[in-house]
Every structure is written in C-alpha cells, then in structure tokens.
C-alpha cells in the first residue's frame, strides 16, 4: 500500500513538472495562464499600458495583441537580433500600431538585475524577468530567441524560432494580423 502510494506520488510529480507543450507553441495553440512579476524597469509598466508596476498577466496589457520574444540574457543570437527588434519597436510607435500590439521580452532565467542591464544596452522595449524559468518551462523550453504574437487570451497567431530574417516582412505580417 505504501509502495503504491509512493509510486503514485512520484508519477504525479513527474507529470506536473512536464511542460505544458510537447514542443514550442505554434499558431492555434493557447498559452497556459501565467503571471509575470513586477517589471525590473519601472517605466516598462507604462509602456505596456499597465496601471501599476506589479505582477501582471497578458490580459492586463493594454493592447489586443502582444509580440512576445523569449530571450536568454546570455544568448548571443538574441543580442544579435535586438537591433532589428529595436527598429520594429520604433516603427510600431511611429505608425501608431503600438496601440494594437505591444512588444514584450521575457528573459528566461534572467534576474531583475540582469534585465536592467540588458535594457540599458540592447533592448528598448519592455522585458520581464522569468528568474525561475516558470514561463519558459511552461512553453516547453524553446531555444532562444523565440518569437510569438498572441492575443490577450493567449492564442498563438504567429511563432518563429531564431532570428527573424526580414524585419520589414515581419512588420507587414504584423499589419495583417492586427487589422
């Protein structure tokens, strides 16, 4: 009896620790609900349209769509892509598309201090820290950078692993998605 109970608890623990997805999210998938900690850079809350800088969910972000970039703080490919995403962020603001889509980086394993550091250097758009890899694990530990566009309910409309090769084509794709 004790042996069966121990085995059952062990199996439950393994199943609960498994990622929400067998592979990285793809269009049509619904992201699991998750809450992000208060942002390390206070002004990022305002950029996302949050009322205050505290824990938040995708539904709290003031736009119908969110572009999420899963990054590794020490990922050279992520840092290589950062200038292109900076241009995209500025273009979204200039064309007022930032009212329909917000950009959010999620630093897998990044501490608040590391996020402040990369925000001062490479990333001009808001970045949340996922210090304990909770969000990253729920997304099936995608390699970085991993880009998604989701709606407020977490439905994935676009996903891409690696550097986005043509940021102008991506911008046009965003225009079509957020019409």
Walkthrough of the structure:
The protein has 179 residues and is an alpha/beta fold. It has one domain: Glutaredoxin (3-Layer(aba) Sandwich), CATH 3.40.30.10. It is built from 6 helices and 5 strands, in the order ααβαβαβαββα. Strands 3-2-1-4-5 form a 5-stranded mixed sheet. A hairpin with a 4-residue loop joins β4 and β5. It starts with a helix and ends with a helix. The relative contact order is 0.22.
Helix-strand blueprint:
Blueprint: H1 2-17, H2 43-47, E1 65-72, H3 76-94, E2 101-108, H4 112-121, E3 127-130, H5 134-138, E4 146-151, E5 156-161, H6 167-177
Parallel strand pairs: 1-2, 2-3
Antiparallel strand pairs: 1-4, 4-5
Which keywords apply here?
18% strand, Glutaredoxin, 179 residues, 5 strands
Q: Just give the CATH class.
A: Alpha Beta
The total beta strand count reads 5
CATH H-level homologous superfamily name: Glutaredoxin
Radius of gyration: 17 Å
Distance between the termini: 60 Å
Task: Give a summary of the structure in a few sentences.
Helices cover 37% and strands 18% of the residues.
């Amino acid at each position: 009896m004790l042996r069966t109970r121990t085995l059952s608890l062990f199996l439950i623990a393994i199943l609960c620790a498994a990622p929400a997805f067998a592979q990285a999210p793809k269009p049509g998938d619904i992201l699991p609900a998750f809450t992000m900690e208060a942002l390390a850079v206070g002004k990022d809350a305002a950029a996302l349209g949050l009322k205050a800088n505290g824990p938040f969910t995708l539904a709290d972000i003031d736009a119908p769509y969110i572009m999420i970039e899963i990054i590794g703080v020490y990922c050279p490919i992520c840092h290589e892509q950062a200038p292109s995403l900076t241009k995209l962020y500025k273009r979204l603001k200039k064309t007022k598309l930032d009212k329909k889509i917000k950009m959010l980086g999620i630093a897998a394993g990044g501490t608040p201090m590391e996020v402040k550091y990369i925000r001062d250097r490479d990333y001009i758009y808001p970045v949340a820290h996922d210090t304990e890899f909770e969000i990253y694990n729920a997304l099936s530990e995608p390699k970085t950078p991993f880009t998604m566009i989701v709606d407020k309910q977490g439905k994935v409309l676009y996903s891409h692993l690696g550097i986005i090769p043509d940021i102008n084509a991506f911008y046009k794709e965003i225009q079509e998605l957020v019409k």
